[in-house]
Amino acid sequence: MREPIRIGVLNGPNLNLLGRREPHHYGTQTLAEIESLLRDRAGADDVSLVFFQSNDEGEIVDWVQANTASVHAWLVNAAALTHTSVALRDALAGSGRPFVEVHLSNVFARESFRHTSLLSDLAIGVIAGFRASSYLFGLDALVQHLRGGAEAGAE
Q: Does the active-site annotation cover 83?
């Protein structure tokens, strides 16, 4: 029997508006619907998830710090904080836990300021542009990495 894995799923600013905010970029699924998809996928693989979304950088950093001891890894859509938050970068680095960075839209096909991530060089991988499936792909890759079946982050 495999050891259960616990993953923290972190969602940054404005992701609470999914389903109605710029659906041409982010799709029409709500954050609750994406979380349901992730729960279904995780449950089939003996993985538990803990979810958090905030529009406040400080709350996000506090949540990472408070949950580090109880998770094996992170699935992170930091949204706008991807491009601006040294504090979140430091919190994720300080956690010592691996993470996958995900984005619903293809950030590289958008405004130039979205092309820079303060997180990606710490991540074991980055998945962007597949809307809700970005989360599912990220979860699959993270579980495979944790179980020793992937060489994510290899250069």
A: no
